[in-house]
């Protein structure tokens, strides 16, 4: 069984687990904890804060000097936190929520432009090699010519209650701070986390997230993460051995890869249950999915697992169970495993040996502390977002096993989708007369209906165990408006979003590339076929001429055909000109005199725009007369850009 799912099912029956959630400085699963604006770069002097009843003279000065070079500040455009160096060549551990991006459609994308600041104020750009929200761990890498000072690691499984500890971090408004306390619990299990966590009264303030929790010898016991609201000064720390278990996957796979035998759950054998079942030790098999690999290997609900690969296993409490499940999660996929189980009634059980191969867990949907790993395909104009439907959706949302289709991840309030009575958690099984089983199929059929301008698109849904028929009626705010979308033949993260939003708005869309041909798009959809070559744009009338951005669009700058089309658009009082990212420099390059309308574009090109006489505003989206430009840095900027164009007449 996979521990993520075991935790989820446990949460259905453990009210204490649910009651614990509001106490944490962590919003719901759709919005994981993010620290506010980062503190200023830190340097000496160090602030030492005694917390609660902890004595002020607990941390020797030589220990503070020992750990200080290993702790770093992390800053990026949205938030910040703390981290610590784990190798001389620049690997850094922190929390996943410190470095994650804020795009709900791409939950595995990290924040951009992350800066690491060392204790001596040196700054480095960092790459996020991988991150997870549960366990809340991320691995970063910086490049330094000189060797860095890594931390030493403590034996976290041997940590004990009452042990003196201290945390180091960069809380908001302060430079580096040390906070002192003790470990008050080393087996905390009621926080809906995938592993046990440590509890400490050493203050973990906002900005300290991702920092280290040290023992008295200056060795790292864990990665600080959640903290309680109120006056209790309760902080929570991920044991360092858990974080280190994830490092190799982050380095080699870019994400934490879990192993399992799909799909079964386990339960602990607490004292009362052991007496009822008349067994001494073991782990209860509490669920086996029908027609799953677990069922095929011979596993049955009610079995009692007593040996794994010939070694005895037991879980007498939930903490033991989490430890067992974590030990299986981190095993390599493809590894063979042997389960020895007891089966039958008390007093008459027989022993069975079952063999299977561990498999790689598929990408997770959102639940508990997980924001999910699946790409969401969202039509913001319709208020609808869908993702691929998996076995995990079936379990988490209690959807009938036979259901196929795409899972409705998002329905925005007062949207076209909400008016169609589509609910989050529905499964769309059919679009028009076409059954669909994947997002790829959904996109192909649904986009075709949008392109035809259908006033109502019939949908067939599964809601819990109900069969629901409805129809979505797009507003088509750009009906009868013709758009030429100028793109390269190279992959673009933004092209698919722009195309689907224009279709959802009812625009008639023609795609132009240098020589025509096809364009790969984000996701696993079919390549897009271009309608025009650049040479054909002049003869194709359009209400809107729209240029895509991205590194490849720099090739537009020297293309005289395109520069001439831009000049024509600037001189045409009726035609709207839209430019994204790097393409926003085109109006400046095409203008023989000072560009009259205001523009915005990526900051690195602002100097060139100003030098050539343009008025650069620095906004995310700028609209002046019939010229609309955007930095294109975020998907939200692209959607605001498209909505601005839709509102122009």
Description:
The chain has four domains: 230 residues, Beta Barrel (Thrombin, subunit H); 96 residues, Pdz3 Domain; 96 residues, Pdz3 Domain (Roll); 166 residues, Class I glutamine amidotransferase (GATase) domain (Rossmann fold, 3-Layer(aba) Sandwich), CATH 3.40.50.880. The N terminus is likely disordered. By secondary structure, it is α+β, with helices and mostly antiparallel strands. The relative contact order is 0.08. The protein starts with a helix and ends with a helix.
List the helices and strands and how they pair.
Elements: H1 3-13, H2 15-20, E1 47-49, H3 61-67, E2 71-75, E3 80-85, E4 91-94, H4 96-99, E5 114-117, E6 123-133, E7 136-141, E8 152-153, E9 164-169, E10 177-188, E11 197-200, E12 212-215, E13 219-227, E14 235-239, H5 240-253, E15 259-260, E16 264-267, H6 271-277, E17 283-288, H7 293-296, E18 304-308, E19 311-312, H8 318-329, E20 336-343, E21 350-357, E22 359-360, E23 377-379, E24 384-388, H9 391-397, E25 406-411, H10 416-419, E26 427-431, E27 434-435, H11 439-451, E28 457-463, E29 466-472, E30 482-486, H12 495-504, E31 508-513, E32 518-519, E33 528-529, E34 532-533, E35 544-547, H13 560-571, E36 576-580, H14 586-590, E37 598-599, H15 606-611, E38 615-616, E39 621-624, E40 627-630, H16 635-647
Parallel strand pairs: 1-10, 8-13, 30-31, 30-35, 31-34, 35-36, 36-40, 37-38
Antiparallel strand pairs: 2-3, 2-5, 3-4, 4-7, 5-6, 6-7, 9-10, 9-12, 10-11, 11-14, 12-13, 13-14, 15-22, 16-17, 17-18, 18-19, 18-20, 20-21, 23-24, 24-25, 25-26, 26-27, 26-28, 28-29, 32-33, 39-40
